[in-house]
Amino acid sequence: MEAPAAPHNAGDLELTVTSPDQMRELGRRLAKLLRAGDLLMLSGELGAGKTTLTRGLGEGMGVRGAVTSPTFVIARVHPSLADGPPLVHVDAYRLSGGLDEMEDLDLDVSLPESVIVVEWGEGKVEELTDERLQVVIHRAVGDTTDEVRHVTVTGLGARWATVDLSVLSA
Asked: Across the chain, where does the E strand assignment appear?
């Protein structure tokens, strides 16, 4: 049995974000690159800014409802107020069962017509599609008030091979 081919990596974009407002603005810029069928996997420590980034995505996509952490409901759907796709915001932090537990959310059904953002999705959603955008947010840990975040955006698969991620650093 052959090992599956690794998804094509379109390259990494490294960004430094120095405030929550800048993280939201990054989300708004990122929203302009998204279309129905896109999966974004966000990772980073608690308090890194995953939900803040997603809030900016929601603003940029023009969706209904305040984007807040879906930790206790697992997933929230924000319908578009325009002609765009809905935003499905998933917090997989409390899900320990990997893809089996994720399948209960029917994300594979929602994916073709939605933009799905999954926080804490490592090891849980990769099987949904080889084409995804991975966003890793690093922040100083410990007792710090430092707002600086180092963000790595990686496009995987053919969908992202031709997308110019450098527009995010504008």
From this structure: 9-17, 39-44, 75-78, 87-91, 115-119, 132-139, 149-156
Whether the Cβ atoms of residue 135 and residue 57 lie closer than 8 Å to each other = no
Distance, CA of 112 to CA of 122 (rounded, Å)? 20
Q: Taking the model in full, what pTM does it have?
A: 0.82
Q: Rounded distance, CA 89 to CA 105, Å?
A: 11
The Cα–Cα gap between 90 and 42 comes to 10
Q: What is the pLDDT of residue 5?
A: 38
> At CA 18, angle to CA 78 and CA 134, rounded to 5?
50
Structure tokens at 95: 């899900």
> How far apart (Å, rounded) are the C-alpha atoms in residues 67 and 63?
9
Contact partners, residue 166, CB within 8 Å, separation at least 6: 13
